[in-house]
Design goal:
Layout: H1 2-8, H2 16-43, H3 47-54, H4 57-90, H5 96-102, H6 105-108, H7 111-122, H8 140-164, H9 168-176, H10 181-209, H11 213-219, H12 229-238, H13 242-275
């Protein structure tokens, strides 16, 4: 009787059919159709031309640089993003709200402004660069630095809610059973943080792979040294070589999807593994 009454209740929002249809339409217009056109354009090349374009030594060098710097930046953000989230969630200090707001600055700041600013600061005669024993601007280090800047908020904002909602009674129970602070963190807190941290890592990694505005200024865009894959795509577009540009984009898309899928599988595995303990 209760089930019948529940099914007859009017819902305040549209039902599954309408919402699913609108969601599918929205996803198709913004994601599926544009991505399918990338594959369609690249298919016009033919296999031989496609292979020649995507295996050009200059393009291969840009692939390596893009994935290496994106992974390095995401790894750095994973460590320091956890640290930032821990400080913002566990401690109270002066100007905490301002510091918390500054974490979101890369979301609001135009990427070109960030690139110009970092290039100025870390150039050979910049305020920070002149004190360093190595070059930052116009090197892969500079590219990684720019990607760290744009990717940091993803890890912080994914981990911070988990820490804020974590029950302190669990930590107290662990301490009462004789566990040290490190053991409590490793066995109690870290398993809860791992899925959110991996999600933040994957978001930062994906964001870094497609970043162009902040990188193009600090990279220097030297062939075989500091050219990233998005820059190669822009170069092909400026030359009106649309099939070659889409061919490079297809390779980036496939590899990126495979890597993110792998990260999500690891995240899924970690949830199952630690949920069973």
């Amino acid at each position: 009787m209760t089930r019948i009454q529940h099914s007859k209740k009017k819902q305040s929002i549209p039902g599954f059919g309408l919402t699913m249809g609108l969601s599918t339409l929205y996803l198709s217009l913004l994601v599926l159709i544009p991505l399918s056109l990338v594959f369609i354009y690249s298919a016009r090349l033919g296999w031989t031309a496609f292979w020649n374009d995507v295996t050009d030594p200059r393009v291969i060098a840009s692939y390596k640089l893009s994935f290496l710097t994106a992974f390095s930046a995401a790894l750095v953000n994973l460590v320091f993003g956890l640290l930032f989230a821990w400080v913002l969630s566990r401690y109270t200090f002066p100007l905490k709200r301002i510091v918390d707001g500054l974490v979101d600055l890369p979301f609001a700041l135009p990427t070109a402004v960030a690139g110009i600013t970092l290039t100025t600061l870390y150039s050979e005669k910049g305020w920070i660069g002149k004190w360093l024993p190595f070059d930052v601007s116009f090197t892969p280090i500079g590219i990684t630095l720019a990607l760290i800047f744009v990717g940091l908020p993803f890890v912080v904002r994914m981990v911070q809610p988990v820490l804020q909602n974590f029950e302190h009674e669990v930590e107290e129970a662990s301490a009462s059973l004789g566990a040290t602070s490190f053991q409590t963190f490793r066995r109690v807190i870290f398993p809860q943080l791992l899925p959110a941290a991996l999600s933040g890592f994957s978001l930062a990694f994906a964001r870094s792979l497609g970043e162009y505005g902040s990188v193009v200024f600090i990279a220097g865009n030297m062939p075989f040294k500091t050219e990233i894959a998005p820059l190669m795509i822009m170069t092909k577009l400026e030359q009106f070589d649309y099939p070659a540009a889409t061919a490079i984009a297809v390779v980036m898309l496939v590899i990126s999807f495979a890597l993110i899928l792998l990260i999500n599988l690891i995240q899924w595995w970690s949830r199952i593994r630690y949920a069973s303990h």
